[in-house]
Design a protein that fits this description.
about 375 residues; two-stranded antiparallel sheet; about 40% helix; about 10% strand; binds pyridoxal-5'-phosphate
Amino acid sequence: MNVPFYRHSLTPDNSKYVEAVLKTPFLTSGPIGKEVESQLCEYFNVSHAKLVNSWTNGAVATLLAMDIGPGDEVIVPAMTFVATANVVELVGAKPVFIDCDPNTLLITPELVKAAITEKTKAVIPVHMYGQMCDVKAIKNIIPTGQKISIIEDCAHSFEAKYNDERPGKYSDAAIFSFYATKNVTCGEGGAIITNGANLFERITQSILHGMSAGAADRFKTGQYKHWGMEHLGTKANLPDLLACFLPNQIKTIDERLTIREKIAQKYKNSLQESRIAIPTINKKTTHSRHLFPIHVGLKIRDQALKVLGEMQIGATVNYRAVPTLVYYLKKYELDRNDYPNSISWGEGTISIPLFPGMTEKEQEYVIEVLVNKIDKLIGKN
Ligand SMILES: Cc1ncc(COP(=O)(O)O)c(C=O)c1O
């Protein structure tokens, strides 16, 4: 049997949304995007939302809007996808890596606190795999009198909650990814949400080169309106041609979360007696079940990947710890001993297939290979 790592749920039927856009003058950002932004404000109970063409570009635009740049430090997890740190580099600031809790793989308020210096301008907590960090507790350890912005990396956590509260409540901004494999997707895309009116105004400009009026706004009154530019921006807006895939997915997201949770529980129960480890989930969280990572250990990880490949099971690695990547290791002369939990997890983890369209047979086949082959490999080593 061949089980892909991921199969998207967008049926050819979705072409009707593209057809509808083609009947309007708006190939780029327009009314559909605005509709999705209202939908996001309602879903996350926030006052502002802006669609962007990727998490990465959205985060660069947010950092620019916060005037974060050379000389500034931004605290980021060592255990995350490289994009979380790269955006800090791209604006010329310094990413300061911190380790994670060994069980949840999430950063903690204590770890953030220990990394704060007078140069710290922001922290980017990542809700890894779909489990939320305690953002309120992170906010509470920020020293009074120092402005340190919190930017939530919600690339994995659209449906997630902490204490029944969704992202965006305690942070300055929360950023989502609608990349091809994400729980809500339009191929490439993302969104920024915030309750900060001033920040939102700056973000609205920083996603469009820093211009004071976007294309649609320049013609709104029927007469051309000049635009100015006071701050540098990038180009990060999402076109309606892609935004049109989002409204229906957001409306039906909870149905798919139930399926994701069922698949995750089955993996969890089936692996309970094995030597394969999985992250701990805090009872206060609602997990979005974006990824299902397992830990098989450094000794057999590559052998296990080979076996999964031979058995035609799609698997990936999320993630090798960012401070171990040559660019960061060399540039900042990092010490591996500073990130023991992230490195040990990153050297031994594998992500296995989890997607709403996965059949019971497909999952049973993956479980059989894990229990009968991968667990035995661990036992022999
Ligand atoms: C944790 C995390 N942050 C950021 C990103 C970047 O998202 P995008 O591809 O939309 O730029 C990803 C993408 O997979 C991610 O997993």
